[in-house]
Amino acid sequence: MTTATMDTPRKPDALPDSRAPLAVSCRGVTKAYGQGQSKVMALRGVDLTIACGELMMLVGPSGCGKTTLISVIAGILDRDEGECGVFGNDFAHMSQRAKTRWRGSNIGFVFQAFNLLPTLNAAENAAVPLMILGEGRHAAVKRAREMLDRVGLGDRWKSLPSQLSGGQQQRVAIARALIHGPKLIVCDEPTSALDHETGHVIMRLMKTIAVAEDRALVIVTHDARIFGFADRIARMDDGRVERIVRDPADLQT
């Protein structure tokens, strides 16, 4: 057996369910920042598939390319080379307007920085995707209040972000990501500001709502407490997926 090196990474060894259609298919994806001597390769030929109905977690050291990868998958960043399809759509073949419209209807985001609007209350923040899609404010806020209740913030729907703790803001961000029933939910450290019990409540909610036959969920995390919720875990290092496992214990082998 040969030893994996930077130039010959270990092949991912846990395949998705072959019976399920693919939600995400990445092949040879590269992404660099900067030019010349300051150029940094964030992704070095990533191969990754995520099946419909799957919760995939991306783990690995800080700076290994996890956030860059989900940003490429979600169409926030353009890749440099390779192929990346999301439910059969390739953002590289879309106009900026079409990309924005498709992303707004089909992708939900949980950003590490939350990105809540400071002048809107919790319900209004959670309702933003619905209003962008054309739903009236009253109906959108009503649905947002129902979603906030599901993440344990039903009594704080009138609160501004500045009146909420970090964990509460994170739950508003999660409610916002789920509110419009997107096909792909992309999360960057969704439980980082939550205690153990609340983190597990949120993960159970996200798995119940977000994972279905026609949906998929991809989570970047350092939180080993939630690894057990994943269907598969992709370990990244140095801009590549070096290993994919089903059992979190296999990450240690």
Spatially, the strands of the biggest sheet line up as 5-6-7-3-8-9
Note the overall shape.
globular
Largest beta sheet, briefly?
A: 6 strands, mixed
For the CA atoms, what is the radius of gyration? Answer: 18 Å
Total helices: the number is 6
Q: Beta-strand percentage?
A: 15-25%
How many β strands by DSSP? Answer: 9
Mean pLDDT across the residues is 89
**In terms of structural class, how would the helical and strand content be classed?**
alpha/beta
Oligomer: single chain
The string of secondary-structure elements, in order, is EEEHEHEHHHEHEEE
Q: Helix proportion of residues, in percent?
A: 25-40%
* Terminal Cα span: 16 Å
Account of the protein in words:
With 253 residues, this protein is of the alpha/beta class. The protein contains six helices and nine strands. It has helices at residues 66-73, 96-106, 122-132, 137-150, 166-178, 196-210; strands at residues 22-33, 40-51, 55-59, 81-86, 107-110, 184-188, 216-220, 232-237, 240-245. The strands form two sheets. Strands 5-6-7-3-8-9 form a six-stranded mixed β-sheet, sandwiched between helices. Strands 2-1-4 form a three-stranded antiparallel β-sheet, with helices on one face. Helix 6 (196-210) links the parallel strand 6 (184-188) and strand 7 (216-220). The two termini are 16 Å apart. Residues 1-10 have low confidence and may be disordered.
